[in-house]
Amino acid sequence: MSANKLRKLEGSVSSNSSASTASKTHNTFYAEPCFKLVGVSVLSPSENVGSITLSSILSSGDLEEMVQINYMVDIEYLINQLPQSKRHSLRTTIVHGLRDESAKNIRTVALLYRNIKVVPVSMPITYGTHHTKAMLLFFTDGTMRVVIHTANIIEREWCNKSQGVYMTPILPRKRNDSSSCEFETDLINYFKSYSNNTMREYGERLKNYDFSSVKAVLIASVPGYHTKDSLLKWGHMRLRTVLGNRVTIPSSCQNDSTVICQFSSIGSLGTKESWLKDEFFYSLSCSKNEKQSRDPDLKLIFPTVENVRDSLEGWSAGESLPFTHANYTKQKNYMIKYLCKWKAFDNGRERAMPHIKTYTRLRANSPSELSHESNAEVAWFLLTSSNLSKAAWGSLQKKGIQLMIRNYELGVLFYPELFQMDESIPVHLLNATLKNLKPSLPSFIVSESSTNSSKKRKRIDEESCQIVPIRIPYDLPLTLYDSKKDDCWTWDIPRKEIDWLGRSYLS
User: Fold this and answer.
1) Is position 133 annotated in a ligand binding site?
2) pTM score, two decimals?
3) For the chain, which domains are there?
4) Active-site residue, from 130, 149, 355, 428
5) Is 325 a catalytic residue?
6) Which GO terms describe its molecular function (predicted)?
7) Contact 377/415 with Cβ under 8 angstroms?
8) Under 8 Å CB-to-CB from 85, ≥6 apart: which residues?
């Protein structure tokens, strides 16, 4: 395939379907994955390069209608992020998971706006949460866009936290002969899983749009007791199925790789690691070429007490990092060996506490003398609303024939095969940083024609390849907890120490 044709095809992967984002450097082509970090308000422009804000998302086209699907929504903050001309006229539907007094408050505020409709979500299983974070943006020219992200619609989560956003390309209306694609079908099925008519009606509307340009796979959770045909549709069993049937672990990762789970909350996982290791990690270890690959290592990233104290928000950042001291005490004996602290200098997010949730399998590179080399090749990468909990991912019951999920969750999975345009041109997902937004292949990556020896090689410039840069939010290599001085953050015990803002913490 010619470079011009590949460049043209890659244009469909960009966040603007009419413009090509692929470029060529020494036979290397770059494609846009449509995943961005959210800008941090106190950082300099140089530290927010390539990031996005809520106002820029809502100004990406001439909006005709907006649907916000979330857990928490501050209506006044949301309206203030819209262009001035749209604030009191844009048809807006808010689907939320608030309860009790918070639900009453959002209804009261909505009465002040004739253009806003508020729809609460009823949860069929106790202790469940409507945790999905997504938007449907309909434009006046008849197109639309789907946004899947990690932030509640409240000010503090779009200002000083580490967050992530995935935006589909602009989606045109279907032509009469257009067929459906998997992303469309999965998204519609997710909308139809709700009991309220509003979500079901929007699910029907999605059938009118062409999703063929989307280069991602939907990974969703829906509350219920899932058996038979639905057992593999949701939660970690859905991820297990996709990884096992479609994802080939690249040669560089087959002998040495790590599954990294990064999240902002930890649930009750039990006193033994049977769910974490034998069920959840097993799902994340699956691949098409599992027999040719060594088992990956497991690492968990969650902030330490020191991370929270020294963060941009000080102790108050810990209010968005729910993990009870009781659960940590029960789980510490097996979790501690996997725990890594939050370090994010490479993308300027060291002091911006994570509300983003990412799960990935990769091989980290040793520091290279060549600054343009990526420090990791990524086998797959998942951006999601799901934290590390059984409620979010599901727990197998009845000897593995039933999956019980409590929450609504939504995420998108990326892997190299999704971006493949030509079988003769290999695709690599590589970690990108502020200083290296267009990384080149790490030295450890072997040629496609080589054996799985993990031997180092020099960069072969004459080999054509396509690179998809992924802004992994944390630093690589990871930094394990220091057992002598690092304490895992738990949010329900007081902290007498003073943070940099001069405050102590009352749980």
Assistant:
1) yes
2) 0.92
3) 1-32 (no CATH), 36-206 (3.30.870.10), 219-415 (3.30.870.10)
4) 355
5) no
6) 3'-tyrosyl-DNA phosphodiesterase activity; double-stranded DNA binding; exonuclease activity; single-stranded DNA binding
7) no
8) none
d(CA 303, CA 342): 5
CA angle, residues 205, 211, 215, in degrees to nearest 5: 145
357 is in an annotated binding site: yes
How far apart are alpha carbons 68 and 132 in whole angstroms? 10
Q: Let me know if 372 is a catalytic residue.
A: no
Determine which one of 131, 226, 236, 428 is catalytic.
131
pLDDT (tens, 9 = 90+) of the chain, 507 residues, equals 444 433 333 333 333 333 334 444 458 899 999 999 999 999 999 999 999 999 999 999 999 999 999 999 999 999 999 999 999 999 999 999 999 999 999 999 999 999 999 999 999 999 999 999 999 999 999 999 999 999 999 999 999 999 999 999 999 999 987 788 999 999 999 999 999 999 999 999 999 999 999 999 999 999 999 999 999 999 999 999 999 999 999 999 999 999 999 999 999 999 999 999 999 999 999 999 999 999 999 999 999 999 999 999 999 999 999 999 999 999 999 999 999 999 999 999 999 999 999 999 999 987 665 578 999 999 999 999 999 999 999 999 999 999 999 999 999 999 999 999 988 899 999 999 999 999 999 877 554 444 444 445 444 444 789 999 999 999 999 999 998 999 999 999 999 999 999 999 987
